[in-house]
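Task 17 of the worksheet. Students: predict the tertiary structure of the chain below and write it out as structure tokens. Keep your answer in the requested format; marks are given for formatting as well as content.
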Amino acid sequence: MKKINTLAIIGLGLIGGSIARKAKKEKLAREIIGFSRRKSTLSKALREKAIDKATVSFGKAVSNADVIVIATPVSLIPIFLKRCQAHCKSGCLIIDVGSTKGEIVQRAEKIFSQDKFFVGTHPMAGSERKGFEFSRTDLFDNFVCFLTKTKKTNPQALKKIKLFWKQLGARPIVISPEKHDKVVAEISHLPHVVAVSLLNCVRSNIKFTGNGFKDTTRVASSDSNIWIDIFFSNKTNIIKSIDKFIKNLRRIRGRIKDKRKAELRKILEKAKSVRDSLI
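Model answer:
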């Protein structure tokens, strides 16, 4: 992928800010424009040289951009996609970084004409922290980034965005929007539900917890509004994952209740084997 002339980043939080920092470090674009509703965020991004220009005008941010990254909460992405159609130039590449893909990709493919190209993406990197102040250049290093592909996806656009994420340090994996939402419901959305449920079960004893409990529930410190958007956007798959988890929980409960030691050991050893296989 040739150096991008103008890269516009819509939203300079943890993800958008980290994209800006890494793109600047690797010199992926001749010019990086940051858009945010908060002037304080733009001032900080300029001061730390993560972006070259800052604006609170969406039209000014995207009108001359060759690549646009929408790094906002899930509920706002369709709004900005529609605004991109009205303001961005012919040949522009548009990506999002939302945690769900089905609804977003479906809407994007209805919005954009043949001369503007959208690829849904989702980097599996982040933190329970939010805001530009927590962004960093190595956030995506060696983490998976999903790229969605449908019958309407432009092959050249997909190829360019795949390389873009490689240059940001991620490991791109191409997947359908439907498959993506099923996968992340289990590996990302369900763990958040479990962490929240676990904390609400032990609130009175929270002062006695150790590092293991803190590690298990870390994600529950994330912004609740962001997660409400995610839960509603991917509700069918998340509900299925919750039901699957409850089934497994009941199985463990039954083995403990009936003192079926051998069967309980098999469950524990199977889980250990899977966990130990993670790099």
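Marker's comment: The first strand starts at residue 4 and ends at 10. Residues 180-276 form a domain with the 6-phosphogluconate dehydrogenase C-terminal fold fold (CATH 1.10.3660.10).
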